[in-house]
Structures are given as C-alpha cells and as structure tokens.
Amino acid sequence: MNMEANSTQNTNNHAIVCPFHRQGHINPSTKLSLNLALKGVTITFLNFEHVQQEITKASGCQSNNNPFKAVNFGQTPVGDIRYQVVSDGLPVDFDRTGRLMEYLDWYMSGGMYDQLEKAIGKIVLESTPKVNVLIIDTFYPWASKLARKFGLRCASFWTQPAIVFNLYYHVHLLRHYRHFDCLDKRIDPIDYIPGLKSIDPKDLMSFLQDKDPSTKMHKHIFHAFHDVRSVDYVLCNSVQELEHDTISTLQTLIPFYPIGPILLSGPTKTRVPTSLWAESNCSEWLKPKSHGSVLYVSFGSLANFSKNDVMEIAYGLMDSHVDFIWVLRPRTVLDEPNDILPIGFEDEVRGRGIIVPWTDQVTVLSHQATGGFLTHCGWNSVLESIWHEVSMLCFPVFADQITNRKLVVDDWKIGVNLCEGRTIQRAEISAKIKYFMSQKPREVLKENIRETRNLLQSALKADGSSEKYVNKFIEELAK
Ligand code: UDX
C-alpha cells in the first residue's frame, strides 16, 4: 500500500477489525489495520485475551497497552487505532492447539460469538465516529450474522490466495463432479471451476482431499464459506495481476477486493509486536555469512510433524553441508515432544547451522546472506519470500499450503519441490538442498521471482490495482 503518497485523509469511517487467533492471520490483520488507519479510517482492533497474553509473554511489552501506539511512520501520522482485548469465553490457559476439537466445538456452538457480540455491541454504542464496518476473518462462520446484528457492513478478510477461496466457494461443483466427498473419487484434472483452467486433484487443499469430509474442521470451513456468500466485501491478501483469471471471475460472483500484498515488511517498516513466540535474533549469526549462502528453514505457525519427519529433515540438513537457520517451533511434534533431534546434531552443525524456536522472519528473509527458503508454503511466507526475492524450496504440509505450492512451483516457477511425495527421506532432502543452494537452479528462479516481485510492487503504487481497490473500499464505506 502506498503509504508515503497517502497522508491521512479525514473520513468518518470506523472499522472494527477482528482477526482469527493464529499467527498467519494476526500478522496481515495488524498490517491491514495500519494501512487503513493511514488512510483515515478509525480502527478498533479486537485482540483475544489469550493471544494478547501470548504476545505479551513473547515480546515482554506491557499487557493491555495499545501496541499500535509504538508505531512510528516518521512524518506520517499513524491515524486513530484503538485497541481492545476480549475473551473468547474460554479460560486463557485452555490449550487451544492440543484440544483443537473442543475448541472448534466452542467456536461453532456460539460460545465465542456471544463474547464478540457483547464486545462489539458496547463499541458500537459508545464510539465516535460511528462504527460502520466489521472487518472479520473469513474463517468465522457467523461473521455476517454478527455484523448484521448491529447494522454494520461486513468485510470478510481472506488471508490466503484467491485460488483457494475459489475452490472452497465452488465445493458444490467438486461434489457434483465427484472429485470430493464420494467413495469413487475421480483422479482426472478438474476443469470446471469458474476462472480456473485446470487443477490436479492432488493440488487441492488438504481438507478437500480428506477421505472423511464430515469432521468438525470440514463443517467449520463449509459453514464459513456458506456465510461468506452474504458479506458485503471480501478483502483478499492477493493481487489482481498475480491471479488474474481467478480474481476476475470471482468478481462477477461476489464483491472481491484484491488488496495485497499485506506484509509486515513493505515500503515502510513497522514493528507492532505480533509474534506468539519469543523471537531469537539471527542477525549477528548471519553477519559473517557470504551473500546468498544460507538456507532459511521454517514451517510456519501451525504445521505439526512426526518425530520421524523432524529426524529426516535434521539429517537432510546435516548431510547437505549447507549453512542454515531452522525455526523449530515449540510443540512442532505434538505426540512425542522430547529429544526430537538426532543425538549430537547441534555439535555436528555448529558454526554452519542454528536452530531457533522463532525469529523475525522478515528480517531473516531480507538479509543479504539468505539465499533460499525451505518453506511449508503458508501464504504469508510465500508473499514475504517473493517480496524479498528469495526463491523457495517447497514442502507443503496441509490446508492451503498444498495449493499454494502449485502456484509457486508449477505456475509462477519461483520455487522447486523438496520431494515428490509426502514421505520424506534424508537422502532425498540433502540432495535436493545441495542442488537448490548451488548457484545454477536459483539463477533461473531468481529472474522469475524478480518479475513476480515487480508485479506485487506495482500493485501498491498510487495507480496500482491493490491501491485502487483499497481506495474503492474506503469510498464504498463512506456511501
Ligand atoms: C497458515 C496457512 O497455511 C496460511 O496460508 C494462512 O494464511 C494462515 O495459516 P502459517 O503456518 O501461520 O499459516 O504460515 P504463514 O502464512 O506463512 O504465516 C506465518 C507468519 O509467521 C509469517 O508472517 C511469518 O513471517 C511469521 N513467522 C514465521 C515469523 O515471524 N517467525 C518465524 O520464525 C516463522
């Protein structure tokens, strides 16, 4: 978003922003709030109590203080961003990751809805300027109901690429043509989704490949995609030119606004604390490393692995003899969390590899020493990698990551696969890492990634597509 060119304009718009509670949603919602505030929209950012507590613990900042107050855009005023902490109705220390199914029950049964209803009701009643829109993550299955309750417009915030939205939106077609939710599933390419020429069933999101489509997770997603048909706007963290056909087609069906890339990095760097885990600073370690020599390894905030997979990745990295930073998040292995690395691993890689629980990913990606990203293809990671022109070695784990890999490797040719199947073996991993980090393959990818980056950058210029859609959204709100 073109921040320098857009000093604060006075509008009477007031948006309540309600992000989903995980890292890959908190980051873009935070930046979206900043972007809109810079354009004169008053923001009330709702944060869940347990998220607030995790961020506070990780960053050491003062509990309940408005973290947006710390932002400094130089001469440009940040705008009016208010901050409110709300309970999701469960105890703060409830293990939302380990007890995911119970959490989903709470979520679906309306427990969380009631809490948000109370909080939003109070803000609507007491605020000036009057609240006119609820910007809420698409994954809330009752988003439009919540907005209507208070006579607000509903803007659904979609943090994944448009192709993924399009596939969920047309899940009825996948059912009809027997590519999903039937016993004798077809395996031929899918060529009937509007705006999508063809997709192989193996590239569908993991939830559309599952044998049992009746789990709580599936119900939750399908409810959300039923609800999204009633919203007033969909704000998508993608770019018109990047997914042209998909987005143009969606725009004939629903008010779809591609306003990406919404990145915590960007033309103007901001630091609102958002990390759910304490960040290890890797800059000193990276300093002496030569240009493009380090492989950054991270599988995002949600993916879990078996102990065996972690071992294979560790041996693969060890045998590759490549320098690396590996983000190994706490609880990456849920069922057997202890001794997940080979004995003596850290001694073996000392000097050329470090393992950290979490880091400032954007800072690592922007460092001159970082030459490649072994990634799970989470959408934020893909956008950040493009933005910093770091080509990708792809190991998608679940959800949209599977489909995002297709975009990165097959369509845009800015990354390569780590392995062909889901089973990973150390020999294949080390050979692939060695090959990927050798100069030649990255030279080809580099050219493509530069072009893709230019496209993202153009979208944010004053006459760029994303900038136009954000301005159009704000104009629409004022009507
Ligand atoms: C998942 C989905 O796969 C993703 O597509 C969706 O939009 C959100 O949920 P997640 O596993 O969180 O995402 O990955 P990703 O989308 O890449 O987001 C992770 C965020 O955490 C990125 O913004 C990244 O910069 C940040 N991060 C990651 C760090 O700041 N430090 C780290 O060590 C690792």
Give a brief description.
This protein has 479 residues and is α/β, with parallel strands linked by helices.
Description:
It is a single chain. The chain has 479 residues and is an alpha/beta fold. It folds into two domains: 3-265 and 460-478, Glycogen Phosphorylase B (Rossmann fold, 3-Layer(aba) Sandwich); 283-456, Glycogen Phosphorylase B (Rossmann fold, 3-Layer(aba) Sandwich). It has 18 helices and 13 strands. The chain has a seven-stranded parallel β-sheet, sandwiched between helices. A six-stranded parallel β-sheet has the order 10-9-8-11-12-13, with helices on both faces. Helix 15 (401-411) links the parallel strand 12 and strand 13. Helix 11 crosses helix 16. 46% of the residues are buried. The mean pLDDT is 93. Bound molecules: uridine-5'-diphosphate-xylopyranose. Uridine-5'-diphosphate-xylopyranose binds at residues 22-25, 27, 159-160, 275, 298, 300-303, 327, 358-362, 378-381, 384, 399-401.
Write the layout of secondary structure elements.
Elements: E1 14-18, H1 23-38, E2 42-48, H2 49-59, E3 81-86, H3 100-108, H4 111-126, E4 133-137, H5 143-149, E5 153-158, H6 162-169, H7 171-176, H8 216-227, E6 233-236, H9 244-251, E7 256-258, H10 283-286, E8 294-298, H11 307-320, E9 323-327, H12 345-349, E10 353-356, H13 361-365, E11 370-375, H14 379-387, E12 392-394, H15 401-411, E13 415-417, H16 426-437, H17 439-460, H18 465-478
Parallel strand pairs: 1-2, 1-4, 2-3, 4-5, 5-6, 6-7, 8-9, 8-11, 9-10, 11-12, 12-13
